[in-house]
Amino acid sequence: GAVVSQHPSWVICKSGTSVKIECRSLDFQATTMFWYRQFPKQSLMLMATSNEGSKATYEQGVEKDKFLINHASLTLSTLTVTSAHPEDSSFYICSARDDGGTDQETQYFGPGTRLLVL
Amino acid sequence: SQELEQSPQSLIVQEGKNLTINCTSSKTLYGLYWYKQKYGEGLIFLMMLQKGGEEKSHEKITAKLDEKKQQSSLHITASQPSHAGIYLCGAAPRLGSYGKLTFGQGTILTVHP
Known about the structure:
- The complex is a heterodimer of chains A (118) and B (113).
- Chain A has 118 residues and is mainly beta.
- Chain A has strands spanning 4-7, 10-13, 19-25, 32-38, 44-51, 57-58, 67-73, 76-81, 90-97, 107-109, 113-117.
- Chain B has 113 residues and is mainly β.
- Chain B has strands at residues 4-7, 10-14, 19-25, 32-37, 43-49, 55-58, 61-65, 71-76, 85-91, 102-103, 107-112.
- The A-B interface holds A 1, 6, 32, 34, 42-46, 49, 91, 93, 95, 97, 103-112, 114 and B 31, 33, 35, 40-45, 48, 50, 88, 90, 92, 98-106.
């Protein structure tokens, strides 16, 4: 099946710094990617939809100025957590939909990035 | 907004036993996904159901979507320790919005050898 990678797989940073997380579709093009967040022992919550060549759309309650999304190419979306604070510590997972796949409803998820803000 | 409720929240079975996990929606399901997750890792796609009454199988796992498209079940036959993990159902909020999934809270499955 299609593969989505994320980098880094984990990151520890100091409070107040910014952290960039990459999401790549390795063998397919994805006009649209999605960013989710998962707190310990909770389910995934959609944060935002990343659209290639246009602005991301954010879910209610997600601060767009804090979680900057850039979808500069059909295979790469980045999520930057600006001025990170301990409450931003979470597991961030991206997903992508294969533009050219026969089953275009299938979502492929990345392995996730664990962020710990000290 | 659509809400998904999974039951049971956790399940402990002996290897070789069959088990069923349910996912119930407050609204019509336009696309129902089943994923498996090891804690702290990414999601592994299992199956996606769209049509009322649809049933799909992959190895020892079978998923069904009821005719009213508001409930889905995931059935594992002759469970193995490799089946252990967190099972999540996810739903598309409306036709065409297949990427913006709402997830259930997950079912933690433990399989004892």
